[in-house]
Amino acid sequence: MTHVWRCAGLRWGEGGPVLAWEGGRHSALVRGKRVAFAVVAGGVRRCVGARGHGCAARAVVPGRSTGGRCEECARLDRARSVAADTFADDPRPYRVYLAWFGPGMVKVGITAAERGSARLLEQGAVCFTWLGCGPLMAARRAEELLRAALRVPDRIPYADKRAVRAALPPTGERGAELEELHARAVALGGWPESLERAPFLAVDHGGVFGLEGLPPMDGVVSELVPGAGMSGDVLAAAGPDLHLATGRGVLVLDTRLMTGWELTGAERDEVTVPVREVGEAGVQDGLF
Known about the structure:
Number of helices: 6
Number of strands: 15
Low-confidence stretches: 281-288
Helix content: 10-25%
Order of helices and strands: EEEEHEEHEHHHEEHEEEEEE
Largest sheet: 10 strands, mixed
Structural class: alpha+beta
């Protein structure tokens, strides 16, 4: 009997990255682990629902959607979302941070203090430092202040993050840009009084992600399709991305593309999913 599983996405925890499956199972994604799966032939990709609830319409979603949700569930998922500024009455303390993804690629953001560095791992931040901690709206005002004064964005495309992971400077040099921006940030006037500033301390995720010695990518999986599959060995895991050594070279799989599909074990050691080769026009963001 063929076992079929539905992926619930990549999760980051204290033990490192795991691939979650509906029903509560988890598969650790350690470096060197073999990943081999196939999409059930004749299947369709169903909406993953929102906030722990299934999609009432069981809507079909496009294969290239990294959200994996229909329009209605996407709207519900963002309801009372900090990112959408609809959760202003959240009483929890929030931290403001600077995250570094590569030379010249720094963003500012906020995350609930209780989550620790989980948000930074989920985004694939190679290095980060805290800037301050306080009430949500104070953290949000500080974030806007820093965006304007330091000219740093609040998001960086995944395609840009992937492109530089194999050519990063040594660990000791990664925090230099963050340290300079941190010094400029804490020297700014206009900080909310209720936001306690944090000293500079660079936290590097290079070892956690497995970036040392990472070879350049040869392509990016653009989507999953019924009947297609892929297999490869895990070289690194950063954010939602898996860098895999395959028979077609080093490929990056955004695990968000897996959600909503019914998957099974691969019968053959090959890559038959659609892949955009590096250098092709249109390469952009888009087991086990």
